Hints:
Layout: H1 2-15, H2 22-25, H3 36-43, E1 48-51, E2 58-66, E3 74-81, E4 86-95, H4 99-115, H5 119-127, E5 136-138, H6 150-165, H7 172-192, H8 197-205, H9 221-224, E6 227-236, E7 239-245, E8 249-255, E9 262-266, H10 276-284, E10 295-296, E11 299-300, E12 310-311, H11 319-330, E13 350-355, E14 360-366, H12 368-371, H13 376-390, H14 405-418, H15 428-438, E15 439-440, E16 443-444, H16 446-454, H17 457-460, E17 467-474, H18 476-484
Antiparallel strand pairs: 1-2, 2-17, 3-4, 3-5, 4-6, 6-7, 6-12, 7-13, 8-9, 8-14, 10-11, 14-17, 15-16
Amino acid sequence: MFKFVVNDAASYVRTNVRDISLNALRLLPQLPQLSPYDVNLVLRENEFVYNFPLDGIIRSYETNQLGSNSPCEDSRTEASLLHRNGFICGIFDGHAGAACGQVVSKRLLRYVSAATLPRQVLREQMKQNCSSQSFLKCHNDNVDFVSEIKPIYEASFQKYVKELLETPQRPVDSELVHAFLKLDEGLSEEALASNDVRTMSVALSGERFTQAKPKSIQLTVSHWFPGAVACLVHLEGLQLHVASTGDCGAVLGVLDPQTQQWTPKKLNTEHNADNMTEVRRILAEHPKEEQETVIRNGRLLSQLAPLRAFGDFRYKWSLDTMQQKVLPMFGEQAMAPNYYTPPYLTARPDVQQHRLGPNDKFLVIASDGLWDFLSPSEVVSLVGEHIDSKTILEPMRLPEGDVTLQQISDQLAQRKAGLTRKPVDQNAATHLIRYALGATDYGIEHSKISYYLSLPKDVVRLYRDDITITVIYFNSEQIAKQQNQPDGPDPPPAA
């Protein structure tokens, strides 16, 4: 119970983080003052940038992560789809530990890459004894599952592909929903398949390590029942799909060619107690006698903040399963209060589809740690300004065709004026993190960032959550060309 009280306090503080002044932070015990150099080292430690071929739909993507929990409970994965032209990426925010988010970040992309491949191509590839890693090329993933659990996960993938080959091809949005649900179902089956405490724990938690053997796992309820929310982006040609389960966020940056103003377009809806449509859906699935207990204090069964998630099987398994498999191992504390008519939780995503146009310049996906500080409109404005300011760092390029001296003069004057806006960070994800932590009414304040980064591990969670961001930049010229050739072949968005 104490854990949930602490979580509620942390949620309240982060939700009202804009009202916490710098003076309030300074009331804490004296903290070491980080130098600008030290701040930059911390903020840029997990930066990653990937550039695609010039003839692709995507120019590049930039990503970064700043942990609050130790270890960080957020995960991120980005990959090119093989055997066709496509790109896929996602951000995964774990709770009750990092394990579920780490597992889902690797396995979900493999499920989706197989599901969205034409069935005939998938069938041909499987005849060549392909594995779950044969359908995508990851760009930013340097770890793998420990050897003990690889066969378990691979067997589940092979079973999933066999089911795919026995069913007709579905639309992409339906395939995404199916992949989410089948992966979650597989996680549940793997956890229940063994009566051995340690084996079940590894299968359920699936912690990722590069060591030959998994680290010892403390057997507590939180490690046995981890969960994760997810926001996944799938792009083939001009068709963009965003599948979201939980409270991560995705927003498209659209530039008006006439006014040169940036407009945000939300591509998902968070599943939490602020979403009344989601609340009504859950209440409708349970008897009237439970209307006061299903969601209490903004949490599912008074415990879980996201209303959809992977894992978290203590909110999904039947009463018989809980009583026969779980309670004998963990005791009565494993059962959530007022647990009468499960399941209360689902991993089913909402999927939004968008056809890219030349005015769509970038897409930002991020864990809720960013949205605690910044609104979608603010994020789009900041990335848009960052794009404009970065132009002075690139070589000057003259327009095609005949160019007048006046045009050259105007371009030079524009670049000179931009020197005053030269960005501190070349990575837009880092720029967003810096602004989230250090923004004041008078600009970025170094001392505020320093305080946030100096907070002790047992305190920092009260002031900010893990922050993970991926910014995807689109190639407007290639999008325009493809729009003019709707029946032609799609140019490759990734290498």
